[in-house]
Amino acid sequence: MIKNMTQAEISLHIIKVLKENKKAEFEAILEELQPYDIAKIYEGLPEKHKAKFLLFLKNDLLADLMEELDKDEQLEVLNKLGIEKSSKILDLMDNDDLALLLHELSPEKMDSLLSGMKAEESTAVKDILNYPPETAGRIMTNRFVWIRNYFSVREAVDKLKIFAEFAETINYLYVIDEERKLVGVVSYRDLLLADMDEKINDIMYERVISVLVATDQEVVARTAERYDFLAIPVVDDKNVLVGIVTVDDIIDVVIREANEDIEKLSASGKAIDFDTKIFVAAARRLPWLILLLFIGLISGRIISSFEDTLKQVVALAFFMPMIAGMTGNTGTQSLAVVVRGLISHDIDKGVVTRLIAREFGVGITIGVTCAVLISVIAYIWQGNMILGAVVGCSLFFTLIIGTLAGTIIPLILYRFNVDPAVASGPLITTLNDIFSLMTYFGIASMFLHYLI
Amino acid sequence: MIKNMTQAEISLHIIKVLKENKKAEFEAILEELQPYDIAKIYEGLPEKHKAKFLLFLKNDLLADLMEELDKDEQLEVLNKLGIEKSSKILDLMDNDDLALLLHELSPEKMDSLLSGMKAEESTAVKDILNYPPETAGRIMTNRFVWIRNYFSVREAVDKLKIFAEFAETINYLYVIDEERKLVGVVSYRDLLLADMDEKINDIMYERVISVLVATDQEVVARTAERYDFLAIPVVDDKNVLVGIVTVDDIIDVVIREANEDIEKLSASGKAIDFDTKIFVAAARRLPWLILLLFIGLISGRIISSFEDTLKQVVALAFFMPMIAGMTGNTGTQSLAVVVRGLISHDIDKGVVTRLIAREFGVGITIGVTCAVLISVIAYIWQGNMILGAVVGCSLFFTLIIGTLAGTIIPLILYRFNVDPAVASGPLITTLNDIFSLMTYFGIASMFLHYLI
């Protein structure tokens, strides 16, 4: 019915149906829509129609809708639904999405929501909340179907049919033994292709790739990406199957981690998007800026300690922004390569040594090229060959220092289990500012009497 | 057999089996491994064992192996296999992976490889190569199973069984009509749950979300991510089904696009990773650095035009790095928010207006805070209240300018279909350097006789 309608047309149609109280027709329309579309339509509805929209929506679709909304909207929906219906909806939500919602609520609010839920569901969510953030345990779901290895294909399919709602987004059945230990995996495709009387034991794949509950979510994503898996099983330290991470969550992790790297490299502050309020955004950015302000003052302090040199050759100031800027930039270039490389590489001593040697080589190459160029330019501009040599020589050294700092500092942070992107962006820019000014004025002071 | 062995143990075991010429045992081991593991083991083999490894490997696993290797290794394998066997392996590879491999080969090499392949496979690859890079057409595969809407579930399952190899990584069957137009979709799960005699027409989902062949790969990824799809069908402008994009390719797109944003924001040069050679890496970074060198000279030129002011109040130089650094950084912060936001948002006038207003507010908030702070510090340090006021006042204005430049410039680039990350990083830093120095020295010159 709505097959060829645009989203705006569907919205108008839904409003009409809501006004006319046609619940059956409403349900028929909604049945054709994807959760993402339902969420967009809900968000776009005039406020006065939202309550009836929620009232008409079936519970399973309400749970789907919840999973697509952002936090503030989720809380708004729960308020509209009232505590009793809310608990029913929460029962139906994926546990990992639910954990994300509950994570930042006040303990009282969380308790009141959890207490209305089914015991098994609320226990599952509480379990998830016990794992540290950004681990496999935190993003896994318990909504998967397990089978035993002595099952026949027919029994497996029958169990799958019973738990149809459960198994919605997954495409493997995980096989466990009597101790719930993970012993194999069978894909839906294997089931379709197999004979109904075959034993799962004979068709299952035994070398199952799994991750531990405590595994970092970035590693989980990397594993799934390497193996092109649609889901990855999560086990505890006794190899007992406790959950699965699905590919949609893995895509979310990949996007989130990339955004985090960008946030950190650009020191842009945590989680600022288009909808963040002015004072929240300002408050998240200010710490970095104030840090940078003080760091900038260190640079100022260095310059002031060379005040006499600067007073005698004011032209030295003309090249300051160029040298500091170039050094900072070459450091950021190296940093970006290292930070992104660490995501996809397993790091050992050989890799580190080769990388540092490579970047050292790059620093020298870049240093020679830029130094020759600036020496000539400085000489032509200021008509002073010594000044040209001082500027060129300084740039040569600072570019090598900048490149190495951009390479080595993130590797050291990584070695000590600090996320290399965390402090590196501003840290490296700052250190490079300080290094470059000291090198520049140091060299200039040495040649001062030739410069004047 | 190899269930509990580490990868190093498996490698050693494989070398032993290769030495003893036990082909059957070799195949039994390989059957248990994932393509990614096979590739890692192959890469780690001593050179002398590689040829026999390839010789023993079944064709379908060879194709899997190829898909995991990087380009140089792929060409090495093809050379080892010889042209005849190569063509057989290429027949078995996913078309999108094959297109990626062929894309950068010389026309002669490409022709010699294509000419040995099955006509239908080489035609499919050539078709893919005709689509522009970074579009759905370029990353889609033709290895999917289509069914007709009048099929029964039994017929669909039978067809799936015949094309088992084909349908390996997909979990939906796409339904087409007599003109090959896409009319529905059925998941494997739907097939498992349905009665064997039901008609596909009755169980299929009709409102299929699809993308066009010319759709940008970033939009394809965004669509799949929103709907949590495992695959997304690709149609031409007549709604004829021509291919599908699978979730593993979507994850690759997400990672590649994030890396590109980081490369561009940090001006780190295209595609430099841990294995890039020194001179290649240096050559890719130098253009940005040389551009920045000249831009740095513009800053120098501005300072030199205020030489008299600077000569009379050398202390002004002490605050230069801080003001330029802060302005550059606040610009980068805004830029990062905009660049990442553009990926997940549909942009309209309302969004743009709200965003600019928000960032203006953030600029004022940050500006007031930092200006007050630096005024006090500058006064205490240099004992000159006017100097404090000049520095604070300059910082206030430059932070607002920096924030707005970081917001508006990428939006303008986006409006004119230039990737906002392309030029923004260095461009914004540079412009902000110039703006900040002009503002600072402009204000300082106005108050010069109070400063001395």
From TrEMBL, chains A, B:
The keyword Metal-binding applies. The chain crosses the membrane at residues 286-303, 315-339, 360-381, 387-413. InterPro entries: CBS_dom, CBS_dom_sf, Mg_transptr_MgtE_intracell_dom, MgtE_N_sf, MgtE_transporter, SLC41_membr_dom, SLC41_membr_dom_sf. GO terms for cellular component: plasma membrane. Keywords: CBS domain, Cell membrane, Magnesium, Membrane, Metal-binding, Transmembrane, Transmembrane helix, Transport. Residues 140-203, 204-262 form the CBS domain. Homodimer. This is Magnesium transporter MgtE. Its main location: membrane. It is found in: Cell membrane; Membrane. It comes from Bacillus salipaludis. It comes from the Bacteria. Belongs to the SLC41A transporter family. PANTHER family: MAGNESIUM TRANSPORTER MGTE. One of its GO terms (molecular function) is metal ion binding. The lineage of its organism: Bacteria, Bacillati, Bacillota, Bacilli, Bacillales. It is a multi-pass membrane protein. Pfam families: CBS, MgtE, MgtE_N. Acts as a magnesium transporter. SMART domains: CBS, MgtE_N. The gene is mgtE.
